[in-house]
Amino acid sequence: MLANLARAAARPSAGLVRRAAAATTKCSSPSVPAAAVSSAPKNLRCASSLSEVLKAEIEEERLVAFDEDVASMVKELGKKGITVKDEPGLSLVRLFGPGVGDEKVSVEFDCDVEGDGDDGWEDDLEDDSDLSLESGEQQQGKGGEGQEDEGGEDDMIGPGYRFTATITKGAKKMVLSGSATDTIAVHGIRINPANVEWDFSLYRGPDFNELDPDLQDALYDYLKERNIDDDLAAFICMYADQKEQNEYTNWLGEVAKFVK
């Protein structure tokens, strides 16, 4: 698992590579004689050109091999009783696994949300968090630092894939927001009634970084016992990258079908 973690930290995401390439290169179309271009109706030429570009892009993306490390990490999680819920066409990924005692734990992350300081990401995940608890349980994590936002829960959280983890015990649940890079970074923790999805009137807890360092360490140890640690960070980064690549390739295919 440590080797996988190191690879996840060192490897740029497919989405970042794609965006960087788009920013530094110009798309070019096959050279077509002017006479041939002028003789075809303009709308047909555009459709033909778009279809050709899409076809070339799809073929290029399909050359990206499936990451075997991701498959092996899913198997490792399965040994811990952790399952992955991943529906094609959706960017949200959910993990369910056992907590301690009768706890239920879940983790949610979006393959399309990489840490850039956007507002509202946690609100979107929180809307679905109780759905995760219907069947499941959770995963692992530990980490570094983060910042909490007085309005959402994170304003500028730095790089990494953002996630929400929920630990439910009896009538209460602990909801934490964090980000995953080569480590888990917790940004905020709050305690809510188990049946409440989101209520802005509830106290959201302090900025995690403002807590006493000993308390922070103790909380990270608590989370690690529930499989919320740096191994989880490695998994989130690698799985989100693979998921985004798959969804992008599928999206290209859907666009190609639509413009055919």
Automatic annotation (TrEMBL):
Membrane-spanning segments: none
Compositionally biased intervals (Acidic residues): 112-131, 146-156
InterPro entries: MAM33, MAM33_sf
Gene Ontology terms: cellular component: mitochondrial matrix
Region Disordered, annotated ranges: 112-159
Domain of life assignment: Eukaryota
Record-linked Gene3D superfamilies: Mitochondrial glycoprotein (3.10.280.10)
Protein name: Mitochondrial glycoprotein
